Amino acid sequence: MEQLETGRLILREWNMNDAADLYEYAKSKKVGPMAGWKPHANIEETKKILQMFIEENETWAICLKATGKVIGSIGLHCSSREHERSLGYVLSEDFWGKGLVYEAAKCIMEYAFRILKLEIISVVHFPFNIQSKRVIEKLGFQYIETKEKATKIFDGTEYDDVCYAITKEEFYNLNL
Ligand SMILES: CC(C)(COP(=O)(O)OP(=O)(O)OC[C@H]1O[C@@H](n2cnc3c(N)ncnc32)[C@H](O)[C@@H]1OP(=O)(O)O)[C@@H](O)C(=O)NCCC(=O)NCCS
């Protein structure tokens, strides 16, 4: 996984030393459930997830350049189509509202289209996740459809997926 850099962030691969930083935000009830996953109950659970991140190699750690602290994650997940990937992200609540995920996602999308030669990137949010909706809009994604009860989350609740996509041409034309 290539390390990437933005004005305020380093996007890099995970290592097991990141467990404490990951646990710090992954235990929050306000973070994971918005993306469909269960808050981590303890650091042992975090270490298992971290091991999975390392093995899957689809997710970058979002690190603050100023301190080196890991404050979130961003990933490009494989989809059924060859030149398409799905974007996912979470950020520690302490750093919300500073445009950091927009900054990280813009960098990842540039990398995905230019280096990985993707043709399309998709993203989804749950209907109540207005924060994620705003990030998606600011990145120029186009609304595609809402799939009813498409995701069953960890506690069994079913949510609609609000689905968006952006093509390489659309992204380049935006000149973000
Ligand atoms: C979604 C998320 C990644 C957004 O990251 P971010 O870097 O805070 O995004 P931005 O700074 O661009 O803010 C996005 C919107 O969140 C809202 N917001 C900002 N600070 C906020 C805060 N402290 N509390 C609640 N909402 C806030 C604003 O409406 C903002 O929109 P605006 O730019 O029009 O003002 C982050 O909120 C998060 O990690 N949420 C939990 C996990 C999640 O939802 N992941 C995505 C699953 S689809």
From TrEMBL:
<keyword id="KW-0012">Acyltransferase</keyword>
<keyword id="KW-0808">Transferase</keyword>
<dbReference type="InterPro" id="IPR051531">
    <property type="entry name" value="N-acetyltransferase"/>
</dbReference>
<comment type="similarity">
    <text>Belongs to the acetyltransferase family. RimJ subfamily.</text>
</comment>
<dbReference type="InterPro" id="IPR016181">
    <property type="entry name" value="Acyl_CoA_acyltransferase"/>
</dbReference>
<dbReference type="GO" id="GO:0005737">
    <property type="term" value="C:cytoplasm"/>
</dbReference>
<feature type="domain" description="N-acetyltransferase">
    <location>
        <begin position="9"/>
        <end position="169"/>
    </location>
</feature>
<dbReference type="InterPro" id="IPR000182">
    <property type="entry name" value="GNAT_dom"/>
</dbReference>
<dbReference type="GO" id="GO:0008999">
    <property type="term" value="F:protein-N-terminal-alanine acetyltransferase activity"/>
</dbReference>
<protein>
    <submittedName>
        <fullName>Protein N-acetyltransferase, RimJ/RimL family</fullName>
    </submittedName>
</protein>
<dbReference type="Pfam" id="PF13302">
    <property type="entry name" value="Acetyltransf_3"/>
</dbReference>
